[in-house]
Each structure stands twice: as structure tokens, then as C-alpha cells.
User: Which sequence fits this backbone?
């Protein structure tokens, strides 16, 4: 459990990144066309991300030691996301649109980080200039796009490498498949999504959480 908590803290502080596409094992559709030019790939990813209104998906998170935990991710733009971990993991990660919060119910601890300090803002913040900090990676399949997002002025925030797969039924024509978190100390966390559902009804109270800290705290 301590290893999982440490990994999650690093993921939030550094907003860990996705691995390049060649390092991921995934199922991709048959080639539809030649890959677009690098600048076009970035534009395609930006359009696809901004086209997502809500998204619910199963996820599996793997740290650099191969330890895996699963759960359900729920996203509602702008700015809201919830990582609900499987039973037995007393942790919750929630964004209310302004900050990412990690709640540890085991030790009754709450930690918060501004979204703007995280490359996850590329996914959560519709006003973030993704194209300004994005760099495409070559992939071995024309239907797969891999994009690194990193603010060179703030290397301590880490890198997020988003893997998108061309899919006609997904918003913007590309589906968010996975990302891998790489913090400033090169510690890696991989998040893979499955059973993606777009446009589902997501009430705002999904992103509320119960504060485990004593009510008389100062």
C-alpha cells in the first residue's frame, strides 16, 4: 500500500507521462491512411481532447515495479476528473476544476495541487495551449498518435505522453487509449483505459468527496 501511495503522490505532483507508442501494447484498427505531418498530429489531438464532454472508462495503473491497481475514471470537461480505485485501495483522486486532490482515507490525509501546475491540464483545461508544449513521437502504426506535453519552463511538473487511436465513433475521430506518467525523477506510471463511454450523464456531485480529517482541525 505504501508503494501505491508513493506512486500516486508522484503522479499528481509531476503529472506523470505516457510512454511513447512503440512501448505500449495495444489493439489498433487497420491503417486508414498515411500518418499526418507532426503539426497536423498535434492539431488532431487538440481537437479530439476538446471534443470530449464526458468520458467514463475502466483503468489499470501500473508503476515502474509492475504493481497494478485498477478502477474507474470519470471525466467531465472543463476540469473535472475522478479516479475511483478498486475495493481495498482507500485512496481517491478528484479534480473539481481548480485543483487535483488526493484523499487518503487510511491515514485521514488530504493533499491538493493546482491543475495549472500539471501537464494533466492538457486533458482537463480547455484553455491550456496544448499545441505550444506538445511534441509528436513517431509510431509504427498510422492510426496511432503519440504526443508528449511538457512545459520546458517547469520540468518539475513532469511530462504527459498521450496515446490516441483513430476511431470514427470517438469525439474528434481519436480515442484516448492510455498515458504514462514520467516525473522529474524519471519514475514512470502507466494508465491504460478500456471500455470508454463518451457523452454519458455525469452529475457534478460525482466530483465531491468526504473529508476524512477531524472536524475540529485548525
Assistant:
Amino acid at each position: 500500500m505504501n508503494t501505491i501511495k508513493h506512486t500516486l503522490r508522484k503522479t499528481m505532483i509531476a503529472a506523470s507521462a505516457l510512454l511513447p507508442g512503440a512501448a505500449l501494447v495495444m489493439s489498433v484498427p487497420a491503417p486508414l491512411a498515411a500518418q499526418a505531418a507532426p503539426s497536423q498530429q498535434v492539431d488532431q489531438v487538440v481537437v479530439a481532447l476538446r471534443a470530449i464532454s464526458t468520458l467514463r472508462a475502466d483503468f489499470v495503473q501500473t508503476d515502474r515495479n509492475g504493481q497494478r491497481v485498477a478502477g474507474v475514471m470519470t471525466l467531465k470537461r472543463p476540469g473535472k476528473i475522478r479516479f475511483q480505485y478498486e475495493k481495498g485501495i482507500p485512496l481517491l483522486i478528484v479534480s473539481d476544476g481548480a485543483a487535483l486532490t488526493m484523499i487518503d482515507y487510511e491515514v485521514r490525509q488530504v493533499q491538493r495541487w493546482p491543475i495549472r501546475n500539471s501537464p494533466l491540464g492538457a486533458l482537463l483545461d480547455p484553455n491550456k495551449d496544448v499545441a505550444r508544449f506538445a511534441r509528436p513521437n513517431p509510431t509504427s502504426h498510422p492510426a496511432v498518435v503519440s504526443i508528449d506535453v511538457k512545459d520546458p519552463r517547469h520540468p518539475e511538473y513532469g511530462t504527459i505522453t498521450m496515446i490516441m487511436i483513430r476511431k470514427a465513433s470517438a469525439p474528434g475521430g481519436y480515442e484516448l487509449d492510455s498515458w504514462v506518467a514520467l516525473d522529474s525523477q524519471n519514475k514512470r506510471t502507466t494508465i491504460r483505459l478500456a471500455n470508454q463511454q463518451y457523452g454519458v450523464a455525469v452529475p457534478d456531485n460525482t466530483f465531491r468527496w468526504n473529508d476524512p480529517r477531524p472536524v475540529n482541525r485548525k
Q: What stands out?
A: Residues 87 and 168 are 34 Å apart (CA to CA). The longest strand covers residues 188-198.
